[in-house]
Structures are given as C-alpha cells and as structure tokens.
Amino acid sequence: MPQHSSSAAGSSGDFPPFRQRHLISIADLKQHEIIDLLDRAERMIDISRQERKSHPTLAGKTQINLFFEPSTRTQSSFEIAGKRLGALVVNMSVKTSSVSKGETLVDTAATLNAMRPDVLVVRHGAAGAVELLSQKVGCSVVNAGDGAHEHPTQALLDALTIRNHKGMLAGLTVAICGDIANSRVARSNLLLLGALNVRTRVIAPRTLLPAGIENLATEVFTDMEEGLKGADVVMMLRLQHERASGKMIPSVREYYRFYGLDAQKLGWAKPDAIVMHPGPMNRGVEIDPAIADSERSVITDQVEMGVAVRMAVLDALLPARNQA
Ligand code: NCD
C-alpha cells in the first residue's frame, strides 16, 4: 500500500484526550473523534512496521478479549494490538467459559469485573449485548461485533485503508455489495462513511437488504452494473449463512452469477477502484478468487490496518478512563 506521510512513531500524548470511555457504536462518535482515531492509527502503522514493534503505553494494564462467537482474525488482531502496547492480554472464548454452563452475561461481567481488567474487548452474537455489558463493568469496553448491529473497529480499519490508498475520503463513492441485511460491517461502514461525507451505495438482492434501508443515507441498488458504475471502492461482504434465517438466495451459483465480483463486474467500477473484503471470504461465492488475489485487492492491507486501528482505539480509551 502507498506509504503515508505521518511522522515517525510519536507518543499518544500529542493527541488531545479522547472523551469516550467505551467504543460500542460508530453512531456514538462525532466526526472529529473518528478522524482523531484514524490519525492515531497512522502512528500505530509506523510502530507496527518497525523492527521493534513496541510502544508500551498500556504497560501494567489488563485487557480481556471475551469472544462469545468464534473469530480468528479479529481476536488475534486485538491480541496483537494490546501486546504491542504492552498490556497483559487474556483471551477467553465461550467454549471454555462458564457461559456454556448457563451463567448469564451479567454474571460473567461481574466475575470479570472483579479481576479488575482495564478493558474488555467483546464479541457477542446478540445485538446490544456488548452495550449491556458495558453498563455492568467498571472498565472500558470495546465492541468487537454484536450480532447484526455494529463492528466499529472494522469500519475504522476500512476507512483507514481507503484513506491511505486514495489519499482522502470525502467525495469518494463506496459501493458495499452483498449480504447487507445481516452485516454489522455494512452498518458500521454506512454510519462512518456518511459521517465523513463519503457517498455510499449498497448493492444486494432485495432479500438481502434490511427493512428500512431507504431511511439510511445511502443509495440502494439491486443491479451490480448500475451500482458499481463510477465507484472508487468496491466492498464485498460475506454471505452470512449463520445469521441468514431461511433461504435468502435461490442458490450459491445463482448468487455468484449476479452478485459475485469477477473481472467483468469490476470493469463497471472506476478503472482504479480498489476491492475490499472484511474476511473471512467465501471464494467463488461473493468474489472470484482471481480478483481477491489481484493487484486491485487491498484485503491484506485491511488486516494490517486492523491492528493499527485497534492499537489506536485501546490507546485512546484507556487514558480517558484514568482521568475519569
Ligand atoms: C466480520 C464479522 O465478523 O462481522 N468479520 C470480521 O470481523 N473479520 C465479517 C463477517 O463475518 O463476514
């Protein structure tokens, strides 16, 4: 990815204090707070590209990653982020916890709270569960994805990836394609991009569009050719088999034919349009493997930006708590 122009690794002390205690939803952030997190993340890219990837502003702090849904990339991204900042990071997955023995979310929160963590990073299958948990604990809480509601750090890392490739955000056109109805990634992206004056479009079959989509400030398309025309960024989404209730598409083959991103469909976007995907990808379902691995794809850059954004979020939230 193009090199960005920020100075070498500095300290987070150059930024004004971040006023939020938790990061639950993009909807809670003001435009300047979003930009502040993206700027902080630029510093973290520098740190992560050094030989010695260490910036121990969180030394002595404890971070618990509490994942009620399986996750590889998001959990390891948060783990690496915390460790690069010097925090003690503990991973708890639901299978090994008491939740599978019937403990309620609130009991779990109280137990973890007694261990005096400084931050809980939580993924849960139910929308709103992470916010509920944040009301029951004394530490900062970061939403790592709650049901089909929000996935704020994904939207931040997507914005950072776009900004670094295109040199700007405002005025661009981003087309988000696929399973919009079940996607917390789409929701957080629509909120964040809208707040930064990026034009957004969603493209999906009617069955994969959420009710009330017309009320969000986005253009809605059911045809890929129309939706991709003039797009600067093509963001593909995974078909969320686990969240889609019932059969939302006639068949995977049919879906790929009309909505799978291949060279022909990508040709409808701008010639320099970049291709994104939050992962995990269903190759051959929503995206042609040849496109996923092509020069147009920035998918691995998204993963790199993910660590930087999570470092920025942890670094921003924790000092705020000390001053509270
Ligand atoms: C996304 C998620 O879990 O919401 N993936 C991720 O964070 N790596 C998108 C998805 O599951 O399709």
Spell out the key features of this protein.
324 residues; alpha/beta; four-stranded parallel beta sheet; 11 helices; 9 strands; globular; binds N-carbamoyl-L-aspartate; EC 2.1.3.2; amino acid binding; Asp_carbamoyltransf
Describe this structure in words.
By secondary structure, the chain is of the alpha/beta class. Helices cover 37% and strands 14% of the residues. It has helices at 31-49, 73-84, 105-114, 129-134, 152-166, 184-195, 224-228, 252-259, 263-266, 289-292, 299-323, and strands at 62-67, 88-93, 119-124, 140-146, 173-177, 199-203, 219-221, 233-236, 274-276. Strands 7-6-5-8-9 form a five-stranded parallel beta sheet. A four-stranded parallel beta sheet has the order 2-1-3-4. Strand 1 (62-67), helix 2 and strand 2 (88-93) form a beta-alpha-beta unit. Helix 1 crosses helix 11, helix 2 (73-84) crosses helix 11 and helix 5 packs across helix 6. The two termini are 38 Å apart. Residues 5-11 have low confidence and may be disordered. Bound molecules: N-carbamoyl-L-aspartate. The site of N-carbamoyl-L-aspartate has 11 residues, from helix 2 and helix 6. N-carbamoyl-L-aspartate binds at residues 73-74, 145, 151, 154, 184-185, 238, 240, 278-279.
Could you give the count of β-strands? 9
Average pLDDT score: 91
Number of DSSP helices? 11
Radius of gyration equals: 19 Å
Any ligands, ions or cofactors bound here, and which?
A: N-carbamoyl-L-aspartate
Helices and strands, with pairings:
Elements: H1 31-49, E1 62-67, H2 73-84, E2 88-93, H3 105-114, E3 119-124, H4 129-134, E4 140-146, H5 152-166, E5 173-177, H6 184-195, E6 199-203, E7 219-221, H7 224-228, E8 233-236, H8 252-259, H9 263-266, E9 274-276, H10 289-292, H11 299-323
Parallel strand pairs: 1-2, 1-3, 3-4, 5-6, 5-8, 6-7, 8-9
Helix pairs in contact: 1-5, 1-11, 2-11, 5-6, 5-11
Bound molecules: N-carbamoyl-L-aspartate.
The site of N-carbamoyl-L-aspartate has 11 residues, from helix 2 and helix 6.
